[in-house]
Amino acid sequence: MSSPESSIAHRRARASLTREAIVTAAVTLVEEAGVDALTMRAVGERLGAGAMSLYRHVSGREELLDLVLARLVSEIPDTPPSGDWRADAEALARDVRAVLLRRPSLTVLLTSRTGSGGGLATLERALSIFRSAGFGPRDAAFANHALGNYVAGAALWEAVGLAGTTGDERRARASAAAEETTALAAGTYPSIAWAAPALFAGTAEDRFEFGLTLLLDGLAARRAP
Hints:
The chain has twelve helices and no strands.
């Protein structure tokens, strides 16, 4: 049997249980352990409540995942449109990248829950940009896919690259990798030896902006006259 103290604590937990608190706990769980770790039971344990108590506020795991996605997507800056489709596409890419670097789990949610309410605002923004550029529906949809894939891939690579290290440790490991690459035998890896000084040159922003320019150049060339 439970003690009176535990029963009182349980009732207090139930009384303080709100939809907002549930989503906050779910976001923290996803950030710490990944999307697969999100279960109603795990969220309930974090809140000191039983899983069944959560169903008074959310219908289940699927709705909770959508709410987590909506919460994370709400952190994406909403840069006002400039009227220049290319500048607006660049702003969208940079806005999304900034949040994905802070919230790597958002990459998984955005790509796995296409069409859910949480991601519709970003999809609308992207399609509006490409529609204003003169793309037809098919090309606008494919352009959004290409841009989204590029931003998500670049952000994920940067966020978890070099075993997720950051700051001085990441710079030290990058420097060591550059030295190892430079020392490779030119006779065995001639192209690597040729490009070695440039492989680790510049910043992550330099590489992102280079790829973004190439992608938008290609989209610009495809635009209807």
